[in-house]
Amino acid sequence: MTTPSTTPLASPLVAVVTTGGTIASTVDTGGVSRPTLGGDELVGAAAARVGVRTRVVEALRVDSSTLTLADAWTVVSTVHGALTDPDVAGVVVLHGTDSLEETAYLLDLHHDDPRPVVLTGSQRTADHPEPDAPANVRDALRAATSATGVQVAFGGALLPAAGVAKRHTSDLAAFAAPDGPLPRVPLAPVDAPWPRVDVVAGYPGMDGVLLDACVAAGARGIVLQGLGSGNATPAVVAAVARARDAGVAVVLTTRVPAGPVVTSYGDGGGGADLAAAGAVPAGRLKAGQARVLLAALLRAGADVGGAFAARG
């Protein structure tokens, strides 16, 4: 459903794509939050205060922790559809915070338009006595007429989509980009099924059982979240080699919040050994966004190693 606003026609037109999330949620009598509100209720008086017209399009109404890659692609397709109108100055996506960084990066990977796309959401529900959504929506609407590329407007900050991550579960300034902006090399959209790509978190003394299970479950890609600068154990190195022999792409990232993967350690399980076994370093991309990139590359039949080197 698409709904126009009533702000004067001389004002810029911003398409607002809604997906659900906390920003669209209210708390029921049992104390459980669920996405219940439509886009017009979310935009409210923000458009008039910012001085823009809005056209609301509901793509989804879900908790963002449930989003599949196919669901996130629905958001991308809806944004692309909104941008087919030359009168649209930019797009705002209202999104849950749990997977906002993944959808933002999927949008960034497939955004090749000079007009901005700005994602926002909220930490507090719409019926909270002190909601954070109104200020975030206003900031996003302003950025949608002045920023470039795909951005995240949240808690008073405007952050690039590539490299953004949720840094706190409840703080109103929930997002950060600890490594700054990352290189942008857009991918052409394709029409193909999304492959299974799993994320495996490393820990001291880890064996290869989890990686072997991913391969057995039909994964076409695995993101390994290593320790430190991207290290594991000899057993994990052997499991990476088995996965690569089975035709499964393995990408190596780190559980450390900031800094790149550095494949310099050897001695059986270090990053150098993982790379020798076939793992591709993710650079500065962390696990969530590395999974999005790996899935998009596998879906498109693109070169995994070269693409991560160019973007990470």
Automatic annotation (TrEMBL):
Gene3D superfamilies associated with the record: 3.40.50.40, L-asparaginase, N-terminal domain
EC number: 3.5.1.1
Entry annotation: catalytic residues: T22
Stretches of the chain forming a coiled coil according to its record: none
Pfam families hit by this protein: Asparaginase (PF00710), Asparaginase_C (PF17763)
UniProtKB keywords: Hydrolase
Domain annotation Asparaginase/glutaminase C-terminal: ranges: 196-303
Keyword Hydrolase: yes
Occurrences of domain L-asparaginase N-terminal (ranges): 14-182
EC class of the enzyme, as a word: hydrolase
Family that this chain belongs to: Belongs to the asparaginase 1 family.
Name of the protein described by the UniProt record: asparaginase
Species in which this protein is naturally found: Kineococcus halophytocola
Taxonomic classification: Bacteria, Bacillati, Actinomycetota, Actinomycetes, Kineosporiales
